[in-house]
Amino acid sequence: MRKAYIAGNWKMNMTPSAGAAFAKELRAAAEKAAVDVKVMVAPPFVTIPAVAEVLKGSSIIVAAQNMNDHESGAYTGEVAPAMLKDLGVNTVILGHSERRSYYGESDSFINAKLRLAIKEGMDVVLCVGETLEERESGRLEEVLSTQVSGCLKDVSAAEMAHVTIAYEPVWAIGTGRTATPEDADAAHAYIRSLVASLYSDDIAQNLIIQYGGSVNASNVKALMAKENIDGALVGGASLSVEKFLPIMTFDK
Ligand code: PGA
Questions:
Q1: What residue ranges define each of the domains in the chain, with the CATH number in brackets?
Q2: If we measure between CA atoms, which residue out of 49, 64, 60 comes closest to residue 25?
Q3: What does the pLDDT look like over 136-172, one tens digit per residue?
């Protein structure tokens, strides 16, 4: 049985004080609603300490949205995994499409970060997904296959226990346009089959695959009802309790 995993990617939103106030409200609402799925929030780096303080002792995981591919050194403006771990952060989102497209992150660069994160004992949410042009030209499977195998290169079967994959079609992110539950499930099934061929059926069956791209209170239930959809990576709708709580309680 795969446990549902709902994550909020705050992107470049929430100052430390706004993030702390929001996290306090979110924690209270989640506790009141007895949320029993796995929940994660990923604030911007500088907002992490304030949010982690508020969420200390709660079941909500605090993650980072990115990290560097080196342990330390002369990498101006970057953040190393040990710095995150020192704050109690053990989960990191890697390969988000905004990082791929705005900052030129390649599969091999994401792979280097992913392997370092795992070496440091961290869990990773690895994002993959196609653009509209790639989907419409019939290249969905080719793109997913390249991204999944490139980002997981040299990751061992045992290390896969640290990996969650988020399928996020680029055309559905922040656009209000969601993949249909059927289309999303088909992409998830394909990703699962890729992981089965790279590793084993067992590892593929245990892999949590989140869907991301305009997830909201109205569409989450239909998405989560699909066999291969195990969670959601939520952007815009993770920034208010009113919108995020119904996503966390989709099964109630
Ligand atoms: P969205 O973002 O929910 O605002 O579409 C999802 C994401 O980019 O993770």
A1: 5-248 (3.20.20.70)
A2: 60
A3: 999 999 999 999 999 999 999 999 999 999 999 999 9
